[in-house]
Amino acid sequence: MASFVRMGEEIPVSPAPVPLQQQNWAQHLETSIERGANHLLSLQADQGYWQGELEADTTLESDYIYYLHVLGKADPQRIAKLANYVRGRQLPDGGWSIYPGGPSELNATCKAYFALKLAGDSTDSTHMVQARKTVHRLGGLEHTNSYVRFYLALVGAVGWELVPAIPVELMLLPNWCYINIYEMSSWTRGIVIPMAILCALRPDFRLPAHAQVDELFKDSNRKDAAFDWSKQFFSWKNVFLALDRALKLYEKLPWKPFRQRAIREAKSWMLHHLERTEGLAAIYPAMMNSIFALMALGHGPDDPLTWREIKEFSRFEIEDVDTIRMQPCVSPVWDTCIAMVSLEEAGLPPDHPALVKAADWMLSKQVLGPGDWQIKNKDAEPGGWAFEFRNDFYPDVDDTAFVLMALQRVKHPDSKRMEGAIRRGIQWLLSMQNRDGGWGAFDRDNDRGFLCNIPFADHNAMIDPSTADVTARVVECLGRFGWRAQHPAIQRAVKFLLKDQSADGSWFGRWGVNYIYGSSGVLRALETVSLSTTDYCQRAITWLRTVQKPDGSFGESLRSYDEPLTKGQGPSTASQTAWGLIGLLAGAGVNDPAVAKSVSYLVHQQQQDGSWNEPDFTGTGFPGVFYLKYHLYRNSFPVYALARFANQSRGTEDFSALKFQPSEFRLRSGF
């Protein structure tokens, strides 16, 4: 009889009956689940939450070297540690990638080169010569994205004419206008508004004379290549390029009647959004830009307002003996709800102290104040959860749905508090459904695709439309609370999912890598509303079988975002194998041979301490631009998948402490 050990108590867990043909691995299944669960329990913080490292590429460390120089706080020891980290990830061809195993990428390589130059590396040294050659091979500085050129212009390394116009007068456009700041995604809003202030003020943040980058241009006569017209004359790209030229002419005028008012509005918006949060939007680029904008507005680095943001920003640092690396943000709410659901599936009693403590912490993090989401959702009451410790303006749908599923299975001593929080959360989720039936992440109906052609929108995340993975999370959440496929909100969601399904049966993963993540999430969601036997689900199951490896594992490289022919292909990972297994269990059942192979792989790949190893990135920030490694994914999802298999094998019913009738909630008007 297996057992979990936590806080001095031993809790028995009944073993699953094992089919004879599976004896070669199933005899280890319960032990594997137990070890994995105990390992997760050992990672819980005293306050009740889980927080794994959130890893990204070296653009963060490169930008941080730049940032410390602009701040005037470039301590040589810290700069050396950051530079060590960047140098250590240079590829053999001289460039830097944006994910492990990926090719050299132009923007990351330009940033690394400039940062190492600031750190004192000689341009004649072998690694810098190689980096420069790679930049030229990839197209040169002239073909970098707009953010690279913006940061270089801010310190005088390139001219402002190479930066797309970001007019601060955008702040004056009313919300009913077809183009306004609330038609941008929430993260773009947080990044761009401080940038607009900086573009208007153009502060003198000049760095030492040696910090120039002219040598990175491949063709010095074509520095403005990023502004070349599209071959298709009548296109949104050309419309916005023409507008960019007009705005640059406007910038040269001696009189700009609305400029000062617009700067005041932008400053007011930024200062307002620095409240009730741990930094603007609680993400790296917005926070760095806000610090620069405050400095440009006259708040020096030692000003109390600026210093608060500097301190918040510094919390992204992880310092080792010889290196400093940076996180793009922190993910405690997300990490905690996934760990909770995994432990619940693994058989932790609903009143276990670890779950109750986690639920207490989670209840304290529910966002009950106003946020940007209300601009397009005026009649809804707050009730969502954010990704980070505190980011009250930006609760998100994905976190909220996962949190609700985690809380549902906890027997909390304060049942009224728990019930009220869950009711508010479900009602908020329903209010965020888009007109196309799906859900986006942070805003409702944020889907004006033509805005992606704006020159400063080349980070591939200008809007926040409905996605299959977030929509699936909400459907799964509602299904686990007892809602059925016949409910109008779920019918609209399923209609969106069918429209979004690929021809081969898979679903795209916006926030996780990639088609394995998307397909697994949708299948699990449709299982909860009894739709997993439908033809469209079985097509997804067939696709999963075709990309499963002979050893039962799954793996998909981030290349699939740029090269669809590589979908479902890549190095095997624990988290993606768990996702594949979850999808197979939803639509194929426990007796399917593909299921047994995945279970066997996860059992045999587990390490002695109950963890799994996973060097690859399986999280997504901006597809094609920025990727993530959630360090707890490799531990939480395998535990969940193995436990789900064990529970289905023995016919264990899902436990739910709370269920609500759909009739208790109101739907959006107009549906």
List keywords for this structure.
671 residues, mainly alpha, Glycosyltransferase, 3-stranded antiparallel β-sheet
CATH architecture of the largest domain: Alpha/alpha barrel
Reading side by side through the largest sheet, how are the strands ordered?
Answer: 3-7-6
Count of β-strands? 7
Tell me the overall shape.
globular
Number of domains: 2
- Note poorly predicted spans: 13-22
The structure class reads mainly alpha
Helix content: 40-55%
- Specify Rg, calculated over alpha carbons: 25 Å
Helix-strand sequence: EEHHEHHHHHHHHHHEEHHHHHHHHHHEEH
Beta-strand percentage range: under 5%
First-last Cα distance: 52 Å
**Nearest-integer average pLDDT:** 93
Biggest sheet record: 3 strands, antiparallel
**What is the CATH class of the largest domain?**
Mainly Alpha
Q: How many individual helices?
A: 23
CATH fold name of the largest domain: Glycosyltransferase
Kindly describe this structure.
- The chain is mostly helical and 671 residues long.
- The chain folds into two domains: 2-15 and 22-54 and 330-446 and 465-664, Glycosyltransferase; 57-326, Glycosyltransferase, CATH 1.50.10.
- The protein is 45% helix and 4% strand.
- It is built from 23 helices and seven strands.
- The strands form three sheets. A three-stranded antiparallel β-sheet has the order 3-7-6, with no helix packed on it.
- A hairpin with a 4-residue loop joins strand 4 and strand 5.
- The longest helix has 17 residues, at 415-431.
- 53% of the residues are buried.
- Mean pLDDT is 93; it is low at 13-22.
